[in-house]
Amino acid sequence: MSVELSFGEKNFIQGGIEQNLRADGRQRLDFRPMPIETGVIPQATGSARIRLGSTDVIVSVKAELGRPNSHHPGKGKVVIYVDCSSTVGPSFQGKKGEELSSELSTALQKCLLGGSGIDLSSLILVEGKLCWDLYIDGLILSSDGNLLDALGAAVKAALSNSLIPKVNILPDLAADEEPEVDIIDEEYTQIDTSSLPVIITLTKVGKQYIVDATLEEESQMSSAVSISLNRNGQICGLIKRGGAGLNPSVILDMISVAKHVSIRYIATLDSEISTAEASSAS
Amino acid sequence: MSSSLSTYAPKKLQRRFENKEKEWIRSDNRGFLQCRPAFLKTGSGNAASGSAFAEFGSTKVIVSIFGPRESKKAMMYSDIGRLNCSVSLTTFATPVRSKAMMGFEQNEKDLSSMLYKALEGVIKLDTFPKTTVDVFALVLQSGGSDLSVIISCASLALADAGIQMYDLLTSVSVARVGNNLIIDPTNEEENEQDGNLTIAYMPSRNEVSQVTLTGEWSTGKINQAMEISVAACFKLGDVLRNILRESE
Amino acid sequence: MEFVNLQGIRLDGRRPKELRQLCAEIGVVSKADGSAAFEMGNTRVIAAVFGPRAVQNRSQKIANRALVRCEYSMAKFSTGDRVRRPKGDRRSMEISLVIRQTMEACIMTQLMPNSQIDICLQVLQADGGTRSACINAATLALADAGIPMCDIVVSCSAGYLNTTPLLDLNYIEDSGGGPDVTVGILAKMNKVTLLQMDNKLPFDTFEKVMQLAIDGCEAISKYIREVLLENTKQLEYRRGL
C-alpha cells in the first residue's frame, strides 16, 4: 500500500490530529460509519461484509465436520485465514499480498481465539471423534486503513450470522468405530458471539493516538497497538506494529483509552449487526 | 565431566496444575519470578560477521549476523538499510519431530516476522544504506519462551557484529497461570498458561519495541506483568552488557 | 442425468435458451481507477482496473503500446466445498491469460505507449461461467476507468446436453460432461475474439450451439450498454449537466 503524500499533506494530517480535527472531520476517537451486510455469501454457513469508508472486507464462516485434535479431545477447531484480493491494488498481485495476508491472519487468530471468545467445547459432537470445524475466511476487497478492526468486526458479524445445523448422532457406537451422523437441515443452533472480543487499533501519530486510521493517516504513524477487548473490559490480546518504541506507561495508557472506546464501539457494532440481521431476514 | 561444564536439564514436570490458584513448585524448583539459569556467549567464530549463542534452561539458540552486505540486484534502491530476519527450528528442537508437526512452517514464519518487528525499531538502519543485514536464528532446542530468547540473543549477536543500535534489546516473557504470574515459562508451563505477555524492551531508553499479549487479562494484571518484565529486562540488559565487555 | 425435463425446463427452472438473471454495478471498489461487479445468477465477480500508469517492471515495457496485465483469483469461499488453492495455480493462470488476450483485443493499446493497465478479477461466488462473467465485468470496469476501447467485449457460454443446446450453463450443467462453448464477441463490430470449447461436437450442431452463445452475448451486450448509459447519466447528473 503505497501512499505518496506531499510535505503539505503530511503536515495537514499531523496538525489536524494534534488539534483533534482529522481530515475527514472526525475527532481522534471517532470511528467511521460502519455499515454491515450479513448473509452475502449464500453458500457459506454465515457471512458478513463491512465497509469502513473505502475499506471493504468480506468474511465467510464455513462449518465442516471434522475430527478434534488428539491433544484437545473436548474442543472443536477454528481456523482463521485472511486473503488479500488483487483488487486492493496492483501491488498485491500474485504472491505479493501474502505477507499482509499472513500478518493479518496471525493477528486475528491471536486477538480473537486467544481468550474464551468462541466456546470451543460447544462445537464438539462426539468427544475425541467428531466436532465442527469452523473455517473463517476473510477477503479484503479494498483497503483504506484499519483492516484489522474491520476484519475483527466482520468475523463477529459473520459468526452471529452463522447457523450450524443440528446433528443426530446414531447411538450404539463401539469404542473404535467412526460415529455415524445425520444432519438435520431444518434445525439450527446459533453460535454465541457475546463474549467474542472486538479489536481496537490505536495508531500513534505524533504524541496523540487515533482510532480507525485511514490509509493516509497510517502512513504517518510511528507505531500502532491493536488491542482486543471483550464486553467485560478484559484484554484478550495485544499486538504492536510499527518500528518506533513505546514507553511502557504509554502502552498502559493506550489500554485504558481502548477500554473507554470499546464500550461505545461494542454497542455500535451490536446494533449494526442486529440491523443487518433484521434486514437480511426480511 | 567436571561440574562446571554440566549442562542444565529440567526434570519432567511431575504434577499438573490441578489448582492453579494455589502456590506450586515450578518444575525446576525456581521461584515464580526467577528466570532460568542463562548462558550466553558471543562469537562462535564462524564466517558470520557476528554471532551469539544463548541458553536459557533447555532453550538453546544460535543467531548469526551477515552483513551489512550489498542488497540483491533485483531490490529497488533504498536510502536506508534492509533487515532480513529468518528463524528456523532444527528437526530435533521439539520432543516430536518438528517437521511432522502441524503448522511448523507457519510457526517459523511467525517467529521470523516477530523478530523482524522487534528489531526494526532498534537498529539504526540509516547507517548502512543500499545494503542488507541478515539475521539468521537457529533454535537448537525449544524449551519454552523461545521468542524472547531469540530476540535477546539476536541483539547480542548484532552488537557482536558491530551494527549500530539505539540500545541493547532485551526480551522476557511472562505467563499467567490462574492468578499467578510466572516469568520465563518453560514449554510445560506454556501449555498450561492462561495468558502470555512477551515484551522486547530497551532498558536505557525505557521503550518497548515489541509487545504481544494473548489470553484474557484484567488491566491490573497487565500492569503487574509489565512491571515484572521490565524489571527482568533491566537485569538481562546488564548481563548482556557484561558479556560484551568480557568478550573483548 | 436429466438436465432438461420433458416440459423443456432446466434444473434451475430456466428454458434452454434463457440467460440467468444479470446484475451489474459500476464503481464498487473506490480505490481503483475503474471497477465493476457482475452477477450472472449465482456467479458473482468483481473487477478492478488500475492504470494506465507507468510500467512497474522496466523489462516489460513496450515502446509502441500499452502492457495489459490480468489476474484472476477465486475467493476461498466462492465454491461449495472449501478448497484451498494457492494464488496462481494452473487454472487461474490459464483463465488470466485468456481474459488478458480477450481484453487486449479491444483496448486501443497503441494510444498508450510505455504504460501499463492492470485488470484484477476476484470471483466471490462461482456457479459456472466465471470466465464469461469476468470478461463482462472487466469490460465494465475498463469503461469505468475511461480506457479507450474500440468496442465492448461480451462473453457468454453455451452447452449441449440431452441433445438440446443450452445457454449460459450453471455449475451443475457445466460439470455434466457435455460440450461447452465459451464465446467472446466484439458486440458492434460483430467479431469473435474468444472461442473455447471442450469435448466434441458435430459440425452442424456446433454451429447451432455457437449461434446460441452469440445470441446470448448480444443480449448481454444490450444489458451492459444500458448499465453504462445509466452510469453516464448519473455522472452527468452529479456534475449538474
TrEMBL record, chain A:
<dbReference type="GO" id="GO:0071038">
    <property type="term" value="P:TRAMP-dependent tRNA surveillance pathway"/>
</dbReference>
<dbReference type="GO" id="GO:0005730">
    <property type="term" value="C:nucleolus"/>
</dbReference>
<dbReference type="GO" id="GO:0000467">
    <property type="term" value="P:exonucleolytic trimming to generate mature 3'-end of 5.8S rRNA from tricistronic rRNA transcript (SSU-rRNA, 5.8S rRNA, LSU-rRNA)"/>
</dbReference>
<dbReference type="InterPro" id="IPR020568">
    <property type="entry name" value="Ribosomal_Su5_D2-typ_SF"/>
</dbReference>
<dbReference type="GO" id="GO:0034475">
    <property type="term" value="P:U4 snRNA 3'-end processing"/>
</dbReference>
<dbReference type="InterPro" id="IPR027408">
    <property type="entry name" value="PNPase/RNase_PH_dom_sf"/>
</dbReference>
<feature type="domain" description="Exoribonuclease phosphorolytic">
    <location>
        <begin position="30"/>
        <end position="165"/>
    </location>
</feature>
<comment type="similarity">
    <text>Belongs to the RNase PH family.</text>
</comment>
<dbReference type="GO" id="GO:0071028">
    <property type="term" value="P:nuclear mRNA surveillance"/>
</dbReference>
<protein>
    <recommendedName>
        <fullName>Ribosomal RNA-processing protein 42</fullName>
    </recommendedName>
</protein>
<dbReference type="GO" id="GO:0071035">
    <property type="term" value="P:nuclear polyadenylation-dependent rRNA catabolic process"/>
</dbReference>
<dbReference type="InterPro" id="IPR050590">
    <property type="entry name" value="Exosome_comp_Rrp42_subfam"/>
</dbReference>
<dbReference type="GO" id="GO:0016075">
    <property type="term" value="P:rRNA catabolic process"/>
</dbReference>
<feature type="domain" description="Exoribonuclease phosphorolytic">
    <location>
        <begin position="196"/>
        <end position="259"/>
    </location>
</feature>
<dbReference type="GO" id="GO:0035925">
    <property type="term" value="F:mRNA 3'-UTR AU-rich region binding"/>
</dbReference>
UniProtKB/TrEMBL annotation, chain B:
<dbReference type="InterPro" id="IPR036345">
    <property type="entry name" value="ExoRNase_PH_dom2_sf"/>
</dbReference>
<protein>
    <submittedName>
        <fullName>Exosome complex exonuclease 1</fullName>
    </submittedName>
</protein>
<keyword id="KW-0378">Hydrolase</keyword>
<dbReference type="InterPro" id="IPR027408">
    <property type="entry name" value="PNPase/RNase_PH_dom_sf"/>
</dbReference>
<dbReference type="InterPro" id="IPR050080">
    <property type="entry name" value="RNase_PH"/>
</dbReference>
<dbReference type="GO" id="GO:0016075">
    <property type="term" value="P:rRNA catabolic process"/>
</dbReference>
<feature type="domain" description="Exoribonuclease phosphorolytic">
    <location>
        <begin position="34"/>
        <end position="164"/>
    </location>
</feature>
<keyword id="KW-0694">RNA-binding</keyword>
<dbReference type="InterPro" id="IPR001247">
    <property type="entry name" value="ExoRNase_PH_dom1"/>
</dbReference>
<dbReference type="GO" id="GO:0071028">
    <property type="term" value="P:nuclear mRNA surveillance"/>
</dbReference>
<comment type="similarity">
    <text>Belongs to the RNase PH family.</text>
</comment>
<dbReference type="GO" id="GO:0000177">
    <property type="term" value="C:cytoplasmic exosome (RNase complex)"/>
</dbReference>
<dbReference type="GO" id="GO:0005730">
    <property type="term" value="C:nucleolus"/>
</dbReference>
<dbReference type="Pfam" id="PF03725">
    <property type="entry name" value="RNase_PH_C"/>
</dbReference>
<dbReference type="GO" id="GO:0034475">
    <property type="term" value="P:U4 snRNA 3'-end processing"/>
</dbReference>
From TrEMBL, chain C:
<keyword id="KW-0963">Cytoplasm</keyword>
<dbReference type="Pfam" id="PF03725">
    <property type="entry name" value="RNase_PH_C"/>
</dbReference>
<dbReference type="InterPro" id="IPR027408">
    <property type="entry name" value="PNPase/RNase_PH_dom_sf"/>
</dbReference>
<dbReference type="GO" id="GO:0000176">
    <property type="term" value="C:nuclear exosome (RNase complex)"/>
</dbReference>
<dbReference type="GO" id="GO:0000177">
    <property type="term" value="C:cytoplasmic exosome (RNase complex)"/>
</dbReference>
<feature type="domain" description="Exoribonuclease phosphorolytic">
    <location>
        <begin position="18"/>
        <end position="148"/>
    </location>
</feature>
<dbReference type="GO" id="GO:0003723">
    <property type="term" value="F:RNA binding"/>
</dbReference>
<dbReference type="InterPro" id="IPR015847">
    <property type="entry name" value="ExoRNase_PH_dom2"/>
</dbReference>
<dbReference type="InterPro" id="IPR050080">
    <property type="entry name" value="RNase_PH"/>
</dbReference>
<dbReference type="GO" id="GO:0016075">
    <property type="term" value="P:rRNA catabolic process"/>
</dbReference>
<comment type="similarity">
    <text>Belongs to the RNase PH family.</text>
</comment>
<dbReference type="InterPro" id="IPR036345">
    <property type="entry name" value="ExoRNase_PH_dom2_sf"/>
</dbReference>
<dbReference type="Pfam" id="PF01138">
    <property type="entry name" value="RNase_PH"/>
</dbReference>
<dbReference type="GO" id="GO:0034475">
    <property type="term" value="P:U4 snRNA 3'-end processing"/>
</dbReference>
<dbReference type="GO" id="GO:0005730">
    <property type="term" value="C:nucleolus"/>
</dbReference>
